[in-house]
Amino acid sequence: MLNFILLIALFLLQLFTIIFFSDSLPLFIIILNMVFIIICFSLNLYQIKNKKKIKSLTLSLEEAQLYNESLKTLHDDVRTFKHDFSNILQAIGGYISFNDLNGLRDYYNSLVKDFQKVNNLYVLSPDVINEPAIHNLFSKKYYIANELGINMNINIFLDFRSLDVNVYEFSRILGILLDNAIESANECDEKIINIDIRKDLKVNRKLFIIENTYVDKNLNINRIFEKGYSSKSNNSGLGLWEVHKILKKNKNLNLHTTKTDTFFRQQLEIYPYKNAKKKEEEIFN
């Protein structure tokens, strides 16, 4: 854009020169000057167009790379499960033959965890998360959590193209909530994040529910949106304060925060734009 503005200024300057000094300048110099200006102007427009294409292609390649990583991991897990299927059945048979229900229960829970991992990788498909920006965000956060040894369970029953929300602002909210969940779960001995994305047909809204294990059981959920408030000693938290500012601008968004002895829970609610006023009245009532 700076080049574009400078070229316009140069063009106006040259036009001024030609108009006021045309009598003293040879005709071929004037024509040559105009030709060069037009060429520079055209090249600049071409470069701007190409940069947009390159940026779009870069984003597409990043998404494709993340998707390929998901497919590769999913393929390896399915192959491993297929290879071990006979052993799994024999192990189950062993617990049954010895009537060891406690052992069978523990074995079943371990098996469910492996199935959940395969399910997560399937969920991280562009066909399921069909909004590129949100898909890219979810994929990156999932792999960060996976590297930290956090068990992230994801269930999605929603068409992301139907959201009544600005994707940029929604991505900021979602990114902050996921970052907080990852940071908090990573401090725990039992590192768990559960994500449930679905419609609530009774109230006509979309729900993004993120819950995670956490250490600070004395966390004041009434103050977490204050600027600078944090459970850390230096009170450096700004993320949820930023979330609060975005929520105030969008009357069809609401964030409900709760906690139990095990999980800290954030429920992001997205209402249709036409129901925003109704939602606001319900909150204040």
CATH topology label of the domain at 128-285 = Heat Shock Protein 90
CATH homologous superfamily heading of the domain at 128-285: Histidine kinase-like ATPase, C-terminal domain
> Measured on Cα atoms, how large is the radius of gyration?
28 Å
Q: Helical percent range?
A: 55-70%
Please give the CATH class of the domain at 128-285. Alpha Beta
Number of strands: 5
The pLDDT mean sits at 80
Q: How many helices?
A: 7
Uncertain parts: 233-237, 276-285
Distance between the termini: 49 Å
Order of helices and strands: HHHHEHEEHEEH
State the main characteristics.
single chain, alpha+beta, Heat Shock Protein 90, five-stranded mixed β-sheet, 7 helices, 60% helix, elongated
Provide an overview of this structure.
- The chain is of the alpha+beta class and 285 residues long.
- It has a domain at 128-285: Histidine kinase-like ATPase, C-terminal domain (Heat Shock Protein 90), CATH 3.30.565.
- The chain is 60% helix and 14% strand.
- It is built from seven helices and five strands.
- It has helices at residues 2-21, 27-97, 101-123, 132-147, 167-186, 239-249, 276-284, and strands at residues 151-157, 192-200, 205-213, 253-259, 263-270.
- A five-stranded mixed sheet has the order 1-2-3-5-4.
- Helix 1 runs antiparallel to helix 2 and helix 2 runs antiparallel to helix 3 (101-123).
- The longest helix is centred in the N-terminal third of the chain and has 71 residues, at 27-97.
- The two termini are 49 Å apart.
- Residues 233-237 and 276-285 have low confidence and may be disordered.
